[in-house]
Design goal:
Helix content: 25-40%
CATH topology of the largest domain: Purple Acid Phosphatase, chain A, domain 2
CATH architecture of the largest domain: 4-Layer Sandwich
CATH superfamily of the largest domain: Metallo-dependent phosphatases
Structural class: alpha/beta
Distance between the termini: 56 Å
Radius of gyration: 23 Å
Number of helices: 15
Strand content: 25-35%
Largest sheet: 6 strands, mixed
Strand order of the largest sheet: 6-5-4-1-16-17
């Protein structure tokens, strides 16, 4: 008897990456080219499944201008078989997410978000897809950050611990053992490190065969096998997809072979889907017309290559916000800057795609000792792990640190060239998300800090402030000048 082959294609963290780009003369990515690749694969093979492991939303002006509705229309045309939630799916609110779900032509699954009052799940926890007589169960798991994003929605909860998530997966697998399931996939958005923890905790009898992950934007060259379970993730955006080939014995339906690779979505491999391109052009033309005006210019193109290091754009934006302000230090979240380069001409659209999170700016007053604890926690080893996805900050120019990884200690911790004393009081500014989740992000209780000196809201719209400040000047420049020095 012949083996049965199923091709499982997956994306994660698309983040509104709808437009193709040209790299070294090669056109790469874009949702129309991704759709072309999927259509081509489906034409060649009837046994193709396409799954998305969360975070379709946020990252482009086309997504944010239409509050995700444009994203749903475009993703509908990819005809995904199953999608799980990412943390950015709740950026427009739970109520809006539930409305958007009604507009999808694909199932959204999630096993660990629920209504607290009666413990009712918000979504179906799993989806069973049958191809050529092979039944594959997908179970959706979301990151703990969804709780932080929904702090104002007190009726919503989630299992946030890897152990609890593993237990929930085990319950689902155990409950449906009586159903004829041949292969089980966790479609996860908890990040690679948490996927590893979850895989370690899953008992063999749960029968989980594969974890397809997201959230940490990890571009893997080969699967990571933990506790016998392959874990895969395909970077982010539409530049590539992950592709697994599953071979099943026709008689027993047992898995006989597994292989996995990433496939680049390039013009040589993937034709353009003209229907999707037409839909995309409609949205792009409208946003281009609305957001084409120039805010300012930079002296050159500036970069933000990684979230866990000091960057040119991080320094520029931290300084612009701190100059002339009422606070001493701007701690600007690296993760709130979503593009790796910007300029030399800065248009409104470029800025909104680079900095898509518009929220309030808050000021608190901390001691030097408290600030040391905050920054040492930011610089913990997890921050430098490819599996990690910790919060990291860019500093305004007067604040500098030298951190020794081998000693796990600061060799220098200065403000305006002077070593910061433990009893020295410093005013720091934080974005709303980081202010609201201060205790978890910095591993330090905020209550004593704001009891000593009440917090102040110093701006209602950080994006509005940036647009105003940047538009008042031109030819901005910044360099990496040693504000965050990390010794190996």
């Amino acid at each position: 008897m012949a083996d049965k082959k199923i091709t499982l294609i997956h994306s994660n963290d698309i983040h509104g990456d709808f437009l193709e780009v040209e790299k070294d003369g090669v056109k790469t990515g874009g949702i129309a080219r991704l759709s072309g690749y999927l259509k081509q694969k489906r034409a060649e093979d009837k046994n193709v499944i396409y799954a998305i492991a969360g975070d379709m939303f946020k990252g482009s002006i086309i997504d944010s201008e239409y509050l995700g509705m444009s994203t749903i229309e475009l993703v509908n045309q990819l005809y995904p078989d199953v999608v799980t939630l990412g943390n950015h799916e709740v950026d427009y609110g739970i109520a809006h997410l539930l409305f958007i779900e009604k507009c999808t032509h694909f199932p959204i699954i999630n096993a660990n978000m629920f209504i607290k009052t009666n413990h009712t799940r918000l979504f179906n926890p799993y989806e069973i897809i049958e191809k050529d007589g092979i039944r594959i169960m997908f179970i959706g798991i979301i990151t703990q950050e969804v709780l932080a994003m929904t702090k104002t929605e007190n009726v919503i909860g989630t299992f946030v611990d890897a152990r609890e998530a593993a237990r929930e997966v085990g319950v689902i697998c155990d409950t449906y053992k009586t159903t004829d399931i041949d292969y089980t996939v966790i479609l996860s958005h908890v990040g690679l490190e948490e996927d590893i923890k979850m895989a370690e905790m899953l008992p063999k009898e749960a029968g989980v065969d594969l974890i397809i992950g997201g959230h940490t934007h990890t571009l893997m060259e080969e699967p990571m096998v933990v506790n016998g379970i392959p874990i895969v993730q395909a970077g982010c955006g539409t530049d590539q997809v992950g592709e697994a080939e599953l071979l099943f014995d026709e008689a027993t339906k047992a898995l006989k072979g597994f292989s996995w690779k990433t496939v680049p979505i390039t013009e040589s491999l993937c034709p353009i889907d003209e229907q999707v391109a037409g839909s995309l052009d409609t949205y792009k033309n409208e946003t281009d017309e609305k957001y084409a005006q120039i805010i300012t210019t930079f002296a050159r193109q500036l970069t933000h290559p990684a979230r866990n290091q000091e960057t040119e754009l991080g320094n520029l934006f931290a300084d612009v916000m701190q100059d002339g302000s009422s606070f001493d230090i701007m701690l600007l979240a690296s993760g709130s800057m979503r593009k790796k380069e910007l300029g030399p001409v800065l248009r409104v659209q470029d800025f909104k795609e680079f900095f898509p999170y518009d929220d309030a700016l808050h000021m608190i007053e901390v001691t030097g000792a408290e600030l040391r604890k905050m920054i040492s926690y930011m610089l913990r080893e997890e921050a430098f792990s490819p599996e990690g996805h910790t919060e990291f900050y860019q500093f305004s120019k007067d604040f500098r640190v030298v951190w020794s990884r081998s000693k796990q200690a600061f060799e220098a911790f200065t403000f305006k060239g002077e070593e910061i004393r433990d009893d020295q009081m410093l005013k720091i500014a934080l974005q709303n998300y980081h202010f609201n989740n201060f205790d978890d992000i910095f591993n330090l209780p905020m209550a004593p800090i704001v009891e000593r000196h009440p917090a102040r809201t110093v701006g209602g719209s950080i994006c509005g402030i940036y647009e105003e400040l940047l538009s008042s000047g031109s030819n901005f420049d910044a360099v990496v000048d040693g504000r965050i020095t990390v010794k190996e």
